[in-house]
Amino acid sequence: MSITVHLYYTGENGNARKFAEEMQTSGLVDAIRAEAGNEGYAYFLPMDDPETVLLIDQWKDQHAIDLHHASPMMGKIAALREKYDLHMKVERFISDEAGIPDHDETFIRK
Hints:
It contains five helices and four strands, in the order βααββααβα. The protein has helices at residues 15-25, 28-33, 62-70, 73-83, 102-105; strands at 3-10, 38-44, 52-59, 87-94. It has a four-stranded antiparallel beta sheet with strand order 2-3-1-4. Strand 2 and strand 3 form a beta hairpin.
């Protein structure tokens, strides 16, 4: 089972993008990716909303997320969110162990 979390960071005057850039340049992104149980951590820019950045964050299980949330770097992340005055919307998804159904595979170009 994997847990995928979508975090939509929204700000003003490009602050969401500045936040994502500082997360990257500060080394926090690399540190998160190196944490036990992290399976993916990437920022995306929505084409229709220049004031929002989407983070797709994937973890092995809830225990890995709990360890991440208890880590000292969460304080650094929270400080950057405050610095850039960001607001968040969060969506959570749990992987389907059955995988992609065969009839859906016909729609996937590989």
